[in-house]
Design a protein that fits this description.
Layout lengths: L2 E9 L3 E2 L2 E2 H11 L6 E4 L2 E3 L5 E3 L10 E9 H14 L4 E7 L6
Antiparallel strand pairs: 1-7, 1-8, 2-3, 4-7, 5-6
Length: 104
Amino acid sequence: MEFVLVRIFLREDDRLEGKPAYRRLLELLKEYGIGGATVLKSIMGYGTTGEVHYEGLEVLSYSLPVVLEFVEEEQKAMQAIERLLQKAKVGLITLERVVLWYSS
């Protein structure tokens, strides 16, 4: 069985259906049966525009990079991504093949 790590790159201030996009997308992934997902908030980053977004005391920034990621069977992940793209315009999505290692 092939598994993939999916990363969805967003901005903290992106909105979807009246909620922060990362929160709404996380809810949708749960509805679609994805086993688990994590939202990671950065402290600094830049994207295609080259504008640096920074969380610092001297500047309040509400467009910091946010990454939503999950690991799932490739076919199930692709179906979830297709469904998400019907709901939202997402800037960048990456997929990487992964090997699962379970430790007890």
